[in-house]
Every structure is written in structure tokens, then in C-alpha cells.
Amino acid sequence: MSNIGKGAEKSGPVLSLDAIDRSFGPVQVLFGVSLDMRPGEVHALIGENGAGKSTTMKIMSGYLSPTSGTVSLAGTPHRFRNSQQAEAEGVVLIHQEFNLAEQLTVEENIFLGHELRKGMFLDKARMRSETVSLLERLHCRVDPRARVRDISTPDKQMVEIAKALLRNARVLIMDEPTAVLTSRESEVLFEQIERLKADGVAILFTSHKLDEVKRISDRLTIMRDGRVVHSGPTSEMSEDQMAEGMVGRELSDLFPERATSIGDDVALSVKDLTVPGYAKGVSFDLRKSEILGIAGLIGSGRTEAMEGLVGLRTHSGAVEIDGKSVRISSPRDAQRLGLVYLTEDRKGRGLVLNMGLKENLTLQSLPRFAKPFLNDAEEVEALDKAISDFDIRAPQKRMNAGNLSGGNQQKLLIAKIMLADPRIVIIDEPTRGIDIGTKQQIYDFIHDLAAKGVSIIVISSEMTEVIGLSDRVLVMRQGRIAGEVSGADKSEDAIVRLAMGLEHKIEEASP
Amino acid sequence: QDTTVIGVSIPAATHGWAGGMNYHAQEAVDRLEEVYPELDFVLATAGDPAEQVSDIEDMVATRNISALVVLPFESEPLTGPVKSVADSGVWVTVVDRGLSEEGIEDLYVAGDNSGFGQVSGEYMAANLEEGAKIVGLRGIPTTIDNMRVEGFEAAIEGSGIEVLEMEHGNWNRDDSFTVMQDFLSKYPEIDAVWASDDDMAVGVLAAIDAAGRDDIQFVLGGAGMKEMIQRTMEGDEMIPANVTYPPAMIATAIEMTAVGMTSSAPVSGTFTIGSVLITPDNAEDYYFPDSPF
Amino acid sequence: MSASDTATPAPARRGLDLHALGPLIALLVLVVVGALMNSNFLSYANITNVLARSAFIGIIAVGMTFVITAGGLDLSVGSMAAFIAGLMILVMNWLLPSMGQGVPIILVGMVAALIAGLGAGFLNGFLITNMRIEAFIVTLGTMGIYRSLVTWLADGGTLSLDFGLRQTYRPVYYDGLLGISWPIIVFAIVAIIGEVIMRKTTFGRYCAALGSNDQVARYSSIDVNRVRIMTYILLGLLVGVATIMYVPRLGSASASTGVLWELEAIAAVIIGGTMLKGGFGRVWGTVVGVLILSLIGNILNLTDFVSPYLNGAIQGIIIILAVILQRGKTAEG
Amino acid sequence: MSASDTATPAPARRGLDLHALGPLIALLVLVVVGALMNSNFLSYANITNVLARSAFIGIIAVGMTFVITAGGLDLSVGSMAAFIAGLMILVMNWLLPSMGQGVPIILVGMVAALIAGLGAGFLNGFLITNMRIEAFIVTLGTMGIYRSLVTWLADGGTLSLDFGLRQTYRPVYYDGLLGISWPIIVFAIVAIIGEVIMRKTTFGRYCAALGSNDQVARYSSIDVNRVRIMTYILLGLLVGVATIMYVPRLGSASASTGVLWELEAIAAVIIGGTMLKGGFGRVWGTVVGVLILSLIGNILNLTDFVSPYLNGAIQGIIIILAVILQRGKTAEG
Ligand SMILES: Nc1ncnc2c1ncn2[C@@H]1O[C@H](COP(=O)(O)OP(=O)(O)OP(=O)(O)O)[C@@H](O)[C@H]1O
Ligand SMILES: Nc1ncnc2c1ncn2[C@@H]1O[C@H](COP(=O)(O)OP(=O)(O)OP(=O)(O)O)[C@@H](O)[C@H]1O
Ligand SMILES: [Mg+2]
Ligand SMILES: [Mg+2]
Q1: Regarding the domain with residue range A253-338+423-511, which homologous superfamily does it belong to in the CATH classification?
Q2: Interface residue of D19, D319, D330 to substitute, partner C, most C CBs within 10 Å
Q3: Distance (Å, rounded) from C-alpha C321 to C-alpha C299?
Q4: What would the pLDDT profile of A315-352 be if each residue is shown by its tens digit?
């Protein structure tokens, strides 16, 4: 929809890659990648998980050096020694995985390395006021004094964005900035992008949400298996064409038809679930083979309610599984009852990044592999199966989970949870950072599970996902269930109205 | 002729007296190596009894020692290992702390810990009036310290001297300084202090000095540190006396062993180095300005 | 174990923060206990004694707060203090014939101590950052090295400052200003400057940042190695300062000087609320921690317990209790 | 600092891994140095001595490997060993009149040691996990407590095993099987079992996981507190085992038993390549680390150095060099 900025036509590229190769040890992941970024232009980089997008971006911003090829800044070849140098040249990267010091406050993180000073001392007052106004500009209501480890994932993303905005970038590179944001927050980000664009900043971003790509980018580069397969104006491509270009095949309908019918037995019954400070009086029934969606705005307490349910947080309320009343005070109890939870925070809570793929995969169901000693062969077998079931693109089987691409980490996390053979599974943001081709595979997988009699709860901030995937959608607002939509009512509009409290199905909740 | 190796195993220099003893051992070794070219010495210092046993094992296994001079870190743990060394035909000289089984060593150069306490106690009894109040500082909790304190207590029994309190100063200047400061806060009247060791006396004196208290008549240290002897010699009223426990006994033991190894002179038996009271009259005889202690 | 205390962090707290006040409360309890047990406890003399003797560990612990906040550790400070004290005494004794007695020679001694501290701190920092060896190993190694160097310098015995010089130097420990003795004043100044550096300067903030996540710090244009080395140098310098206050007290140094100071300093830092893993530190907490440790010893000396052998046990129990008291104030640690 | 090595951790290495072999190389260098310095170095007697005396620290260090891998620390092991040794001696002496001399009383003593170790380990673990106090503080506290309890039990002196009993018990240290003395055999068994547990059981895997990221462990349905307590209990038990091998060697316990064993054990673990922050541990490395430390002491005794005062310095330098040698093999620390 956007037309290419006027400034862009006049000047040449501010930053460009030419024939970049990059290898990690014996594995080559980039092959002759070339890319140009122009001032005032929004450039989207898309591709499957593991295609090499993040690696490309890291090379552009000095976090990685290319094995061969040249990076040019304003037309002249330039080798960034490190990211600091790139930043000094006005090239800023927002990482796919956060780069924040968890013990420090929001404000301290935003100014880290660029503190304002008054003489010898920090000018705390000015930093505070600048932080406040910056966060306001982003419509982010996080407390500048909160420690980053205490704030939610979307807030962390906003802090990252605030940090980048403060750096006065000439070139702003964003690796999946919207993966953890809801559409509302994404809008805020797009507003900022428009502003920066008007100021002549060159912007590169990736996203697996192709509608966004279509909407805000001027130019588009598609990568596949470490190579650039297409580059051109966005306006020339439809979303379907993009998907095809990425995956290399035609994609059928994203959401499969519901094949099996929902059972009659109630698999899980929750009454008055309360997680102090986050959720109050949450009640619902989940039937066998049912896929239940939970929607809501960020901060509506979906995650916390479910974490409470599986014993990760203090909670009260009555829970029945298969009609029997149960007490769950730890995730172990839950898992014994066949109930498992997949976290939305894959880096902090999902995977041990410095352990191998195999070790991560089997961590949750390890006793199964101990007879009494861990059977390496069986673990490897499980990994092979997971790799093929979930299409995990791992260049090597013996690598650390942290070296997988973001989307592939997510797939590994799903595989890990599924290895526990749950009868009831709660999936929080299942497809965060997953490419469109694999998304489809995961949706198929979830349907297959349901067909096998597994009951599923899906928490998702992606509207199309909750609607397309689930049989019924609960909407949460301020820690309470604001209502339920199912069948034909499952419209985006209905959900948003409930989520925002525009429609009262249940008495007004108090936070 | 082949060289004869003499092993010397002593505790490490973790406090003043042990430091002096280390010095004398090193000095004796250097001197005797000059005098007797046919002798070779191995000197090992240990931080705890187990390490000392290891040192002795190493000397036997790799250095083929013909004689061992040992100042046991503690008696009990060293008894067995030293016994097996003696049983293998190695000459054994034990210094200061006796082993807990008799008859193992060929030569015993003994210090007299309960005698040390006793001489100190007798001095107190003789120089304080009935009803006098004293405080005491003890060393690192060990058998040695217990023997000294027992000897001291036995000697003052019946003298009417009241021991207000004894606390561990660990043969350490800083610890005794702290303990003494707190004693001074706690007891408004103290007539004398049994510091039981000159390192501790240094700390005690500094604390008294800083507090500006003049009720304390004197401080009795021990072991004959040169600065203290000098002050006694010069008639310092705060340090009117000292009690010997010479760290140089190790040198005596090494020398006697060397003589035993190189000649047929009879050096076996027990050689007790008693504790002697030093007063301004005889202080000069115990003043060694070159010693580090 | 209920689910409650294993949960993810609660929202950031605001206003009056009981958790932060934990060590202060523990300190107050100790003061009350001390006052009840012995009437001299609150006397001017006793308070001065306790504060002055806390000064050495205190000054070192302030430096240790920075090292630990930045994710490091230093086990060598006790031996380093002994070594610097020995060196300082040797230097002064050696210069005495040429310089004569007086203030200048003391100043030269002080400068020597500071330079030695700086050098020792730099060595630790260099090995840790540039050679990339675990801080635990480096400082365990240098701990042995300094301890054995001082033993060697003292020939196994004690290094004593010349008697005359001692008289000149003595006031630095025993005298003071307006009835407050110098060690207390210096400790207070060091603590205040430390607190200001920690909270008000980029250096303090960088320490916390790299203790929290040194990758992030590096990506934020912070010269991580330089900051890390600086923490060790600062600590070394402060060990020098502590030594300058220590030597006039007894005028001597030996192999037993400063034994276990490292553990005491680290314990003070942690009791004060700094995290051993790094990422968060507060200097005032450390000061409170040092005072808690000193008071425990003082109270034990002022009261008669069953057996002096058990002092260590009581000390251990009180340390643990003090920390429980501190942690207990909030649901989550 | 080039950009490339600031990237996310490198992939796990394969095949011949020089980094992993670091400690082994350091060990080999030491053996060669020793052999060149003294022809008796490789004698049966010397090797037996060195291995047997490594056994105590070695057995403890194996347990410490688990604690550190799981992100913990234990400073109390040395005092704990002294305390358990004292307790064991008291129990045996006390039972002597009723049970008489013989094997049964020794067995009772051993069981007592194991139970005491288990209890002491549990106490540490409980305070650390359930009361959520920093491991450093808890174990610094219990270190003081055990040390002072043993001083008190021994009335400031030494606790000695009855002489007759000592004769019965003595073979446990000095005899052996097929010319290999018992401590060596027990150490080897403990090390092998430890290595198997670390690599081949869920427990070992859980230790590494929670040392790396305990949130992930918790979200993976691992009972984090239980695993953590278990590491301390295991360590306590192994301290008990080490004590069982120690008592027949010296037949006594006192306040100076086991002093600084904690630092030696931790140093061995780290020299062996386990990370102090947790998340990765290897038992065989620890065994190599223990041997390196023992050999340094042994080699220093084999030769005459300038001054025994400098032993500590040489030891410190060698420890640092050993780690540099080990780290130097790879570009990244
Ligand atoms: N440090 C590393 N060591 C080894 N392999 C790596 C490393 N970093 C990335 N890789 C590999 O490089 C490939 C490209 O990864 P990259 O992160 O660039 O993918 P991506 O396109 O960003 O994918 P996603 O959409 O999932 O984020 C992947 O196969 C990944 O496993
Ligand atoms: N420690 C904290 N301190 C302050 N606010 C917090 C803290 N943790 C979470 N919050 C806030 O509480 C709300 C709950 O966040 P959370 O993201 O878990 O909710 P959610 O409904 O699961 O949303 P989503 O899953 O979409 O992120 C958010 O507004 C978040 O900012
Ligand atoms: Mg990516
Ligand atoms: Mg959520």
C-alpha cells in the first residue's frame, strides 16, 4: 500500500550486502546473499525458519562477521569490527531474542551504554523523563523502575524498541518485532515505523505475519535455504505468492477442516480458578478432543491463569480431570495426570539454550528414557522422530538449542511437550515465530492430536489463529472470563469487543 | 660415601611462635648443610596434621630419609604414621609435642607446656595480691593450649586470684587486640593480664594503651619474643617478666640428630627444655636480636 | 513446598521496601540484644572500638561489592592485605635511614601501599579478563601467592615497623576528628563514595549490567573487560587503603595477618543484600553487613556463653538467622 | 574482541576435543615434571601414597561436582568432615565397653558417619532450598557451626580413637586388595559411580538443567527443590564416606581436621572443567583436578626449593598455569 519514499529514489543504498557467505563451523548457512537498504524505505526480509534471516541481519549490524563477501556502508565497503561500531555508524539491530539485562530496570536498560550525564554523575531525572515520554510514544504502560525480569514478554519487546529508537538510527533492523505483540501493539510499532521512514531512516524487518509485510513494507526480499530467491517491490506480490516463494510450493488452506467430532466427556473441569493478582474466578469445561481457544489482550491474565492451573503459581479453585477431583500443586502433579503446559517464553522458560537438542527434547519426559540408565540410542531416536515430525531444521544434531533459529527453537519446544504424551495440553502462543509453511504443519498436528482424543487449550494473541484453530473461544479480560464465542459467532469483531469490555456478558471484573 | 638424608617436618608458620620455629629450622638446615657435606636435608611445612602425614610419607617414599625430625602438628594423628617410619628403621627425633605412645622416638627434645603454664601461674600468684582480678587469653584451641591453661590454673589455685574470664586470642595479635578491647569494655577493673604468648601480648598492650586504662598492673606474655625481652630488660613495668618456650628447640633437635647421624656420639633419650621465668635480672641471656621472633 | 514460592517474580515493588530494609532490621535486633546483655555495649568506647575495627573489613567489603556486583569474586584480599602491610613496613623501615622519621616517610609508605594494591588488583583483573580464567581459581592462586610472599618477607616471623616510626604513625588509627577516630572516618568516606559511585555513575551501572548479562553489556557498547578489570583494581586500591589503616594499629604484619578476611568481606557483601551471582549490589547494605558481623563478635565477647569453643557455632547461627530475617520479610527471595 | 566470538554459544564440539582434554594435559605435564625431578616419583610407594591421600578430597569433590553443576556451593565440607570424624570417634569409644572390640563396632561407626553426613547435607540443602538463603551464607554458617562443635566435643584438644580399636580399623586405610589400597579403591568406585550418575541418569541431567536455568527445569516438571536438596545430601553422604577413610589414617579428629578442604575440593572441581556458575559438570575432570592438586604438593616435597615459605606461592602459580594450559587450548573460554 505504501509507495516508495521520495528520498529513496534519489540516493543510493545506505547499507548493502554483496555476495555474503557465512558458515558456522562446517555448516554453511548463507550463500551469496546480497541486499540493499535505502533511506526512507521499509524493506521486509521473509523466509522459512532457518532460512538465514537472523544471520543476515546480524551480519548487517556487526554482531557477526561474514565468512566472505562485502558489507558496504553508503556505497563504500566497510567492515564492522563489532556491533558497537555499527551502532556508532547508526546501524541498530533489535534482536529476535531479547538483549536486555534482566536485573536492571527498564530505564537502566534503555539507556545502557548511552547514559546521560550531568558532570560526573548520571542525570537520572532527565533519563527518567525521556524514558517516560518514549514509553508514552509507544503506548507502553510499563513502569520505568520495574526490573526487566519482572515485566511481560511484550513489554520487553517494547523496551527493546524504545532502546532502538533512542539510538537515533540511520538504519534500523528489526528481527521479528511483532512476533510477541498483539495487533494493537503492532499498530503502535507501525506508527513509529512510518515516522522513522518519513525521517529518512532505512528499515529492515522480518515477520512471519505476511499481512503485515504486505501492509507496511515497500520492498521485499525472500530467502530460502540461505539464498536470496526473490527481491522486488512488495506491491508486485500477493500474500499467497510470498508464501509460495518462501516455501517453494503452493500452500493449501492454512486451517484444516475439523475431521473428528468433539467428545461428550468432560476431560477437564475448572471452577473458580483464582491466581492472586492475575486471574479471578475462571471456570470452564474442556471436553475430550476439543480444541478450546483462549483470547484476550496482552495482560489479560491468560498465561498466569493457566500457569496456576498446572501448579506453577499459587492458585485456588476446584479442578476435575475425567470427572475426578484432583489437586495440582506442581507441574509434576499435572504431568502425572496427563496435563502439560507449553510456555510462551521459550528462551527463559522453555529451553535450556546451552544444552543440546536431545537433552532439551527429553528433559520433560526423561524418566521414560532411564532404564535405569539413560539410553542414548533411544534419545537419539526420539530426536530423529521429532526432527521429522516437526520439521526442525537443525544443521547438526549435536548442537546447542540456542544455535537453532528462533522458529526452530519453537518447534523443538513443541516437540518436547508432545513427547510427554499429554492427554490434556495447554499451548501458549504455539506458533510464535514460526513460518507460514510450518504453521500449517503444526495446525495439522494439533488436529491430529484432537483426533486421537487429546484435549487442547490454545492461548493465542493471533486472532486468526484462535478463530481458525479452535472449536470454541473463551475471551479473558482483566483476569476474568469475559465471555465465550463459538461456531458462527467466532468473529474477530466479537472477540475484540469482549476483550476490550465493550460488551458485558459477565459482570464487570475488578483487577 | 653416599649422602644421608634427614627429613624435617614442622607445622607452617601460622603464628608468631611457629614463625620463629620455622626460622630456626631453616637456619639450622642451612648451617648444617655447610658443616656436613654428607648430609642432605628436606624441610617440609604443613598446614594441618593430614598434610604433615603426607609430607612424612613423601620423605620416606621418595627421598629415602635416614632420619626424621618431626614437630607434630598434633600428637594423636601423628603417632601412627611416625611409628611406622620408626619401625622401618629410620631414626626419629620428636620435638616439643610428644607422641601419644611412648618409646617410638629415638630422641625427644621436649618443650614443657604445663610447665609453661605453671611458671606463669606461679609468677602471677607471687606478684598479685589476694582478690586480684585477671583475664587470660588462650591460644588456638589445641591440646597444647589446654595443657598450658591447666598448668596455669593449678599454679594459681589457692592464691585468691580471681580469673574473670579467658577467651581465645588464637596466638594472634589482631584477635587478642579485639578480645582485649572487649574485656576492657566488660570489666571496669582488671589487675593483670595473662596473655600467655608474646604475640597476644602485643595485641593486649595495644588495646590497653588505646583505652588509656591504668588499672592494669602488668601483662604476662610468654615464649620470649625479642621485643618483649628487650622491654623486660629495660625495666618496662607493664612487662616485668616473660616465660620461655624457645622456638629454637627445633634447631637443637636438628643439630643433635645431625650429630647422631654423622658420629657415634650418644644422642638418644629425652632432652627436656624447661620453661624458665625471665625477669629483668636474667633477660639479657634470652635476648637474640637477630631472630625474627 | 507450595507452589507459591516457586512462582515467577511478583510485580516490582514500590515505596517502602521491606526486603531492602532486611539487613537494617537484623542490625537493629543485634543492637537491642547487645544493649540488653551488657550495659557497656552502647558506651562510647565500645561503639568506637567496634566501628574502628570494622573499618578494615568494611573498606575491603565496599570494593568487594563492586567485584561481586559485576559477577566476579576475590578470595585473595586477606592475603593481599597481609602482603601489602608487609611491603609497606619493609619500605618504611628501609627508607628510615635516608629519610628520617616524620610525616613524609609515612606518606611514602601509604603511597607504596596504594600502588601495591593497585598492582595486585590489576594482576587479578588481568588474569581474569584477559586470560579468561575463572575468578575463583585466579584469586585462590594469588591468595596462596601473597600469603606465602609475606611469610617469606617476614622470614616466617613478624615484620615490625620501626618503633619510632610506629609512634609517628600510631595516631592514624587511634586519633581522630571531633572524637571520631580516623578509621571510622575513612570507612565512612569510602562507603559514601562507594554508594555514590554505585548509584550515580555509569561505572556503577555498568557493573550491575555486566554482572547481570555481560553479552548485553558488550552489545551496549560497554567495554566489558575494562569495567571488570576496574572493579578488581578498585578493590585492590581499597585493600591498600585498609592496610594503611591497619598497620598503625599494631605496627606489624605476619603470615597470620588478614586470615579469612576474604570470607568475612564476601559474607558482609551478601548479608547486605548484594547477589553473589552479580547484577545487583548496594554499598550501604554491605556496610550494614560488616557491622552485623562485627557486632556478633563483640556481643559474644561481652557476654558469657557456655563455652568459648561454641562461639563459632553461635556466630554461624546468627549469620544464618540474620539472613533469614532479611529474606523472611518478603514472600519471594 | 572480534565480532565473531560474541555470537551465541558455539555448537557442541565433536570428536577429539582439546578443550575437554585440557586438565588431562596439565596432569600429564605434572607427571613428566615429577618423574624428571626424582626417580622415585613413579615408584609404587609414591604413587600409592599420592592416590590414597587424594581419596578424601577426591570423594568429597565428586559430591561437590554435583552441587556446583546444579548451581550451588558448599563451604562447609571441611568442617563437616571434622565434625563427622569427631562424632564417629566418640560413638565408637562410647560403644566400646558394651560392644567390645571387633568389626561390628567399626561398622556401627561407619553407619554413624554416613547418617551424620546425610543429616548434615540435608540441613544445608533444606536451608538453601526451603528457606531460600544463598548457599554461600548457609554453608559459611554451618562451616562455623561444625568447626566449633568439633572443638567443643574435643574440649579444645583432640578426639582420639581408642588405641585397640585403631588397630582394628587401621587396615581400612593402609591395606587393600591386590596391592591397591582401600582408599584408592573406594575413590575409584565413587568416581565411577559419580560419572555414571552424572552422564547416564535423570538425576545428573537434572542437575545440569537446573544449574543452567532453573526456570526451564521447573517448567519441565522437574522437582527443582528435591533435586537441589539431593545434591547436598549426596555431598554430605560422600563427606561421610571420606571420613570413614580418613579416621583410620590418623585415628583422631580435632579443630584442625579438614581445614581448607572446601577450597581444595571446589578448586579441584573447577580445574576439572566444571563451571562454577553451574549448568555443566564432569566427574572425571574433577578426579583429574584432585590429582593435579595432590601432585603439586607431592612434587614440591620431592625437591628442595629456595624456601618452604614459598611453597604456597609455587602452588598458586601452578594452579593458575594448569588452568591457563587447559583454557589456552581453545579460542573461547
Ligand atoms: N551460532 C550458530 N551456530 C551454529 N548454527 C547457527 C548459529 N546461528 C545460527 N545457526 C544456524 O543458521 C541457520 C540460519 O539461522 P537464522 O537464525 O538466521 O534463521 P532465521 O531465518 O532467522 O529463522 P527463524 O525464522 O526461525 O528465526 C539455522 O540453521 C541455524 O541453526
Ligand atoms: N512482574 C510484573 N510486574 C508488573 N506487571 C507485570 C508483571 N508480570 C506481568 N505483569 C503485567 O501483568 C499482565 C499479565 O501479563 P501476561 O503477558 O502474562 O498476560 P497474558 O494474558 O498471558 O497475555 P499474553 O500471553 O498475551 O502476553 C501484563 O500487563 C504485564 O505487563
Ligand atoms: Mg530468526
Ligand atoms: Mg501470555
Answers
A1: P-loop containing nucleotide triphosphate hydrolases (3.40.50.300)
A2: D319
A3: 15
A4: 888 999 988 899 999 999 999 999 999 998 888 889 99
